[in-house]
Amino acid sequence: MNVDGALAPAVESILRTARERTPGEDAERISVDARSFSDALADAEENGRVPLIAEVKPTSPTTNGERTDDPVELAETMVENGATALSVLTEPEHFGGSTENLRRIREAVDVPVLRKDFIVREEQLDAVAADLVLLIVRFVDDLEGLLSAAEERGFQVLVEVHDEEELREALDAGATIIGVNNRDLARLEVDLGTFESVAPVVPEDTTLVAESGITTTADVERMCDAGADALLVGSAIMDGDVGENTRRLVNA
Ligand SMILES: O=P(O)(O)OC[C@@H](O)[C@@H](O)c1c[nH]c2ccccc12
Prior knowledge:
Helices cover 37% and strands 15% of the residues. With 252 residues, the protein is of the alpha/beta class. The protein is globular. Residues 55, 57, 116, 160, 181, 211-214, 232-236 line the site of indole-3-glycerol phosphate (IGP).
């Protein structure tokens, strides 16, 4: 874990909460029958669609206002318009998410669903079923341990990195699906060059996801040209007409 560099106050606050054991935390160990992410990607390729992970994110530390329409309807619209997979925020305080949203959405669609949250302890994994969970290298102390704990429960794991050093950590821990976050967690600023600088050193057999800051069809092309196997898009889809936004990116 890298401790250098300050984190944005919102991120600090989320982490503080994530590290505490909350009363009533589900003690029963979950076992999930995950929908295959790699099959979903192969399907997108076969159908000539951009492999898009569309994110249900009602708000965020960098968003003005909160989207209050039914997250299940938004999710269904994303899938109807060609999203390959979904990402659902479950962090309530700063992203307006909930595990209940995830549960309902996963029931309503048949594509793989990623649980987007700040998981730092094994117990958090048992909160709700998902097909994939996110682990952020910078925040996890024992990455190898948490990665296997997630895989033992049946989850596929998206391991998020921001630079080459974190990429090394992810690979050493056994990650096979890696996301490069274009947003830095200190200033919350986006630079698509982040993906472009890390992607060339990622081994060929890794599934590589470009995350954050992808807005235009030109951005999609740029990330695909740089080697992205999938693209994770939140704000640009959540802002305005979700169906139209998804369609535009899927057909880029
Ligand atoms: O809204 P954007 O810029 O399209 O970004 C989506 C996604 O990458 C972003 O929500 C994200 C990436 N990593 C995270 C970790 C926690 C919470 C959120 C995120």
